[in-house]
Amino acid sequence: MTDHTVGALPEKAIETTAERPWPVRLLSAKISDYVARMSPVWVEGQIVQLNRRPGAGIAFLTLRDTDADMSLPVSMTAGVLAAAATPLAEGAHVVVHAKPVFWTKRGTLQLSADDVRAIGVGELLARIEHLKRVLAAEGLFDADRKVPLPFLPRVVGLVCGRESKAEHDVVVNARARWPQVEFVIREVAVQGVGAVPQVSAAIAELDADPRVEVIVVARGGGAVEDLLPFSNETLVRVAAACRTPLVSAIGHETDTPLLDLVADYRASTPTDAAKRIVPDVSEERARLVQARSRMRAALTHRFAREQAGLDALRSRPVLATPATLVDGREREVHRLRVAAGNALDRVLTGAAGQCGRLAAQVRALSPAATLERGYAVVQRANGAVVRDPAEVSPGDALRVRVARGELHATVSGR
């Protein structure tokens, strides 16, 4: 491309066309100028590669995000690396103070650091404690979210390290208890930068498998730094969203990773997880034998008690001689009939005497009895009884009633 062509290049990227493009050197220069205007920044991540070049007096490392599969190259002088308060190695969590630099010849972006500091365990634990409070406020640790484990799962999903002792402890102990149990195993990184994405992906994959009835995440303990992935927010939220019952078997008694709190069941060790997810066939058989023996003993005792009750009833006189009860009732009925007849006689006799006395009183008080004693009843022609001589006048006709009939008379004077 000639200088004349270069002079005619567009000033802005939006002005470029297929006929008037920017050359690579111009685009690289513009990117470099833009990046150069960026301010230095503190960046946090995990060291996944660390190369020291003593002869050149420079060191290179790759800084990777702890939650996502993203990384950036970082360069620094050997003096900056040596000045770190804690010796740095791959896997360490650090913060670096660096300025972005764009290399125009290679077209690459990297960070040029002038300070690097390791994040201490105390600070990491403080961050975990803060995250714990946040997740607890969201209700991810609530007891009502816990799902009960199945009594006898046919298929168990296992997330563990590659050829790890935790895998051996879970599988061997579970099959010793219940030989028919099947395992779907996902061997992943259980520490380091790949732990969070790999364990999260394994949990999601097993949760989507309809055959898996319970999922176990197992690791055989380790240092606090090694267990940090199991307190990672991304991993914890994946476990909280799991619909399949989840067992956490990290095997660390001193500290409790957040995965233990969000899981449906926390096992102290992988062996404890194996004992929890499947029952012991020998113990279950022993319980069945014991239950059958207790049922047999209970039935035998009940039959014996009922038979004794029947024997006691059959031995009673009323059942030995059933007529005894009827004879006694017959005598009682006869006695009551006699007593009822006597009582009725007494009532009738008393009533008859009372009727005689009342009849005599009625006869004594009767007007006919008074007439029998010589009295008479004088009545006027209209039937009115004469009680006073002033009630009649001379010549009035009167009727006189006596005991044996009537007499007619006329008033001749008073």
Q: What's this, in brief?
A:
The chain is an alpha/beta fold. The chain has 13 helices and 13 strands.
Describe the overall structure.
The strands form three sheets. This protein has a five-stranded mixed beta barrel with strand order 1-2-3-5-4. By secondary structure, it is an alpha/beta fold. The chain starts with a helix and ends with a strand. The chain is built from 13 helices and 13 strands. The protein folds into four domains: 117 residues, OB fold (Dihydrolipoamide Acetyltransferase, E2P) (Beta Barrel), CATH 2.40.50; 156 residues, 3-Layer(aba) Sandwich (Rossmann fold), CATH 3.40.50.261; 55 residues; 42 residues, no CATH class. The protein is elongated, with a radius of gyration of 59 Å.
Series of H and E elements: HHEEEHEEHEHEHEHEHEHHHHHEEE
Looking at the structure, what is the overall shape?
A: elongated
Work out the number of β strands: 13
Task: Determine the fraction of residues in helical runs and give it as a percent range.
Answer: 40-55%
How far apart are the termini?
Answer: 185 Å
Strand order, main sheet: write it out.
1-2-3-5-4
> Whole-number average pLDDT?
85
By CATH reckoning, the class of the largest domain would read Alpha Beta
Largest sheet features? 5 strands, mixed, barrel
Find the CATH superfamily of the largest domain. Answer: Succinyl-CoA synthetase domains
Oligomer state of the chains in this structure: single chain
Number of helices: 13
Low-confidence stretches: 1-6
C-alpha-based Rg, rounded: 59 Å
